[in-house]
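Please, structure for the following, as C-alpha cells.
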Amino acid sequence: MQFIDIKAIHSRSAAKIDAAVAEVFAHGRYINGPEVYQLEALLGEFLGSPGAPLHCVAVASGTMALEVALRALGIGPGDEVITTPFTWISTAETIALVGATPVFADIEADTYTIDPKEVEKAITSKTKAIIPVDLFGQMADYPALEAIANKHGLIIIEDAAQSFGAEQNGCKAGTMGAVATTSFFPAKPLGGYGDGGAVFTKDAALAETIRAVTNHGCKDREAHYILGTNGRCDSLQAAIIQAKFPNFRDEEIERRQKVGQRYTDALKGRFVTPAIRPGNSHIYAQYTIRSKNRDSLGEALRAKNIPSAVYYRHPLHQQAVFAHLPSTKASYRVTEQAAREVISLPFHPYLSEAQQDLVIQSLLRFAD
C-alpha cells in the first residue's frame, strides 16, 4: 500500500500527459512556452469564471509563489508578517528571505488552521500582512481573518498549497486575500512531476508586478525596473499539470471527499478525526487524525505494512533557524499538543475500499 499512490493518479491521465510532453519536445520552447500561458488561463478561469477569471502567474514552486507574492507586495525589512508555526517551513522561510520578520500565532485545536483570536493578539505597529495556511486541505477562517485585516489595515496572503480544490462558502481556495498561492509538488492534490506553483490575484496591476518579479524584474527583455528573481514555471511542468487538470476537476475532487468521509464515518468516536468548519469543503491533502499514543499507533500500522506520516513533528517556533525571533520565545500550546498527537493515514483519490478497510480495521483494533 502506498501512502500516496502517484502512479495510480498518473494512470488516469497518462495518454494526455504523454501527448502534452511530446508537444513541448516538438516546439522546443522549454521556458515561457505556450503551455505556461494556457495553464494560467485554465486555472484562472477555474478559480474565477469564464467572464471574470482570476489573474494567474505560474511559478517554479510553491515556495517561490510565496516569495514572489511577498516581493510584489513590497514586504521587506522592518515589516512583520503573522503566520502559523504549524506548517511546512516555506511559509515562514519566505517571510525571512525577503527581509521581513515572521511572527507566529497559535492554531485552532480542531481545524489546525491559524486562530484569528491569536492573530489579533500578535499585531504590532510593524505588522504588514497575515499568511494563513489552509492546512491539510481545508481553508482557514477567512471571514474572521478578513475582519481583522480590514480593522488593522493588513494584507492577507492565502497559502493554499494544501487546499487547491477546496471551497469556503462557495469561494474556492486560491481566491482569498490580496494574493493567494498554491503548490504543484507531486504529493499535493493537483501535483506535477517536479516542483511548480502558482500565484493568483484579482488585481491586474499586481499580477503584472508578480509576473515581472518571476522574470528577473523585467516586463520587456533586458529592461529591469524592479528587483526580481528567476521564478518561472517551465513548459514541461505546465504541460503536465494542464493535462492532469481535467481529471482532477471532474473526478478527483469528489473522490477525495468520498474517501475522506468514509474514513471519518468509520473512525469518529474512536479517534479525533478531521473537523470541517461550517461552510467549508475539505480536499484532504492529508487525512490526519489524533492519538495520544501516536508513536505506538504508527508502529502498529507499520507492523501491518501500512504507511503513515507525521505533519508536523517539529513546529516552526522550535526550529533552530528561527531561534533568534522574539515570537519563538512564546509557548504555542495548541500547536505543541497537535505536534505530539497528529498522524496522517494513507490517502489518495483511488484508494480502494479494500485498502481503506485494512487501514480502518488496524486502527480500530489498536483502539480496543
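The domain at 6-242 is CATH 3.40.640.10 (Aspartate Aminotransferase; domain 2). The mean pLDDT is 96.
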